[in-house]
């Protein structure tokens, strides 16, 4: 009961525009620097290089969401393009992750699509890949519609499917051949659209992982759950799925020992590296996901 209450508080805070605006002025606080790789492209590239040296690959995410005017969305588009250019110049091994609401999805679909075309075209020029993060369920269909439009022209773009949504299985089947990051889901969703029971979410998560792998599609399994990871290892061995058809993904700053162990075992291990001054919503969702994360953050806060 207490865990659910704290989860709801953190999720509520993550959606507060007032708190998000205030946090931009605070700088990285409350232990956030343990899980956010600085506020600039330069600081993020430095962290990526350090992770690469440990045998880990990355995906960079310039934090930001729910942009309400075109100027901000255009600015975010250009920032993402500069991030791709910086990745190329530095020669580091990293993809790019983006959020469509940061690029104007709530303003106008075609405007957002045009912004995404510029980003994906830049990535193609540098032989790189762009992952469209999935946001809350109200943006799910628009995200998939936009992905469909992009994939008419580009094959270096994919998205994320969240296992807690009832629609996840059908979406994965419809997206056969598309590189997908599969996650459990981190937003507060109503029972009308999403499983609420952890066991059901876990079962559906393994279900969509199996479906996508067996379809021959590239699969990024994004979880810190060692039980799921062990099940995936067993499944790929039993079904002769080559290691170049999947990867594990984890968040920067979490389970670093497990990240390095997977890399040592010869698996592709990609670290999701967020950066930027719009860190508050991301950080609050991480605290909401697992009670352990709160202790982790407090340790970082008082350890400074």
UniProtKB/TrEMBL annotation:
InterPro entries: FAD-linked_oxidoreductase-like, PRODH_bac_arc, Proline_DH_dom, Proline_oxidase. PANTHER family: PROLINE DEHYDROGENASE 1, MITOCHONDRIAL, PROLINE OXIDASE. Its cofactor is FAD. One of its GO terms (molecular function) is nucleotide binding. Pathway: Amino-acid degradation; L-proline degradation into L-glutamate; L-glutamate from L-proline: step 1/2. This is proline dehydrogenase. Keywords: FAD, Flavoprotein, Nucleotide-binding, Oxidoreductase, Proline metabolism. GO terms for biological process: L-proline catabolic process to L-glutamate. Substrate binds at residues 99, 285-286. It catalyses: L-proline + a quinone = (S)-1-pyrroline-5-carboxylate + a quinol + H(+). Its EC number is 1.5.5.2. FAD binds at residues 134, 162, 184-186, 198, 223-224. Residues 44-295 form the Proline dehydrogenase domain. Binds 1 FAD per subunit. It holds the Pfam family Pro_dh.
